[in-house]
Input
Amino acid sequence: MEAKVDRKGRVAELADALGDWAAAPGPRYRTLADALASAIHTGLLGRGDRLPAERAFAGALALSRSTVVAAYDELRGRGLVTSRHGSGTTVAAAPGRGADQTDGRVAGGQATALLQRLVDRPPDIISLAYAVDDGTSELADELVDLARTDLPRLLRDAGYHPHGLPELRTAIAEYYCRSGLPTTPAQVLATTGATQAIGLATQLYLRRGAVVLVESPSWPGCLDIFRAAGARLVGVPLDEEGIQADVLASAITGTQPDLLFVMPAFHNPTGTLMSAARRRQVAALCDRHRVPVLEDISHIGHPTALPAPVAAHGTGAAETLTVGGLAKTIWGGLRVGWVRAPIEITDRLTRLKALADLGSPVLDQALAARLLPRVGELADRRHQLRRHRLAHATELLRTQLPSWRWRVPDGGPALWIELPGADARAFAAIAVRHGVEVVPGSTTDSGDEFDSFIRLPFTFPEEVFTEVISRLTRAWDELTRHGPMADPHGPIV
Output
């Protein structure tokens, strides 16, 4: 964490990194102090770092200033911070803890609160950070049949396949051929989820100071991967057809980027489907300027129902890597992904993957190879369920939160909602006190254009989503009627 954390961006970054501290039991000033103490012990805040100004931090956390003042007093009492008039509050040495010690928190300023919350899994919190569905019944059937018919053959194998299980790579190649993108198994690398594929591409293309063009907004989990590599992110806005080609052209000539990252189907968090015409424009621009493209198409379905990937429209002048996976169509727990690229790029990525894990789990890959030929059928069933849940979600929103605004997405599992006249980060801080974790739009972009937006998945069963909206309604009432709430358990001075 850089020392000057009291500027708006640094204040927001620290507020996010503290995680769901407000859901912990006890007086609010003390739970905030505990969260800051943990950040000091794990190295997120280092010796000499300055804590945010009390008023600015209170605004970011949707608290009263007196609560933050009391939390800082608590930290001073523990010997973790010191204060000097005119210089603010700074971190002192963390007593009894070495720099290499940890308490289980995700370390480093680049890791978002999303990752920390996945580790912590706070009780009684309904998380809107991950839009996931239950596993399909077909997955269970295929798993049983796999154990009965294929397991003896698989167990006779050594089990190390850095490129991926051959039958899975063949199934992926056939899927892309049907999608309009000619592919051979040699162009495919199987990975442990799409996230690993993005991480491997980042290792290959990015060094500290590299420039990555990204859609604005984009998903913070992907942005964190690029930031962790030391890259500088430049956002390019979207319209109803996807990333804006004219702005992209200007960004390419103005920044000479090392990589372009896009999510053509369906964009996260807006749910936009990039049109075929826009994909051709993106491919032509990147070919002309030889900008490598990383396209994440993790929402897969009928191979002929969606426009062909960006890679299908290029001449090959620009290296284009197409990432996919089964988590969003089959089940989040099936951690099977892949990347399709020119053979020489796939070989380089394979060497990086071999250094990481020698290859993804064989049984998972074998199951994925069985399911991939049926992915169109399975995606159709998933789509029908999501349409029903989307109708339920929009009816609840219109009834209970009529001032909220959104556009029905082209696809995907979530709504991108604008909260009129509100700071979504402040709303998220209040929502977690009502038992719901919200992803504010400010985490999806380095600017302030989406500060009033949140992402709202509708993949929950109806009774759970009904409870989500009930809690969010109470949080919204608190924000709009009363603003930040003072801590009733604060010390009496």
Summary: The first strand starts at residue 81 and ends at 84. Residues 38 and 103 are 8 Å apart (CA to CA). The two ends are 32 Å apart (CA to CA). DSSP finds 17 helices and 16 strands in the chain.
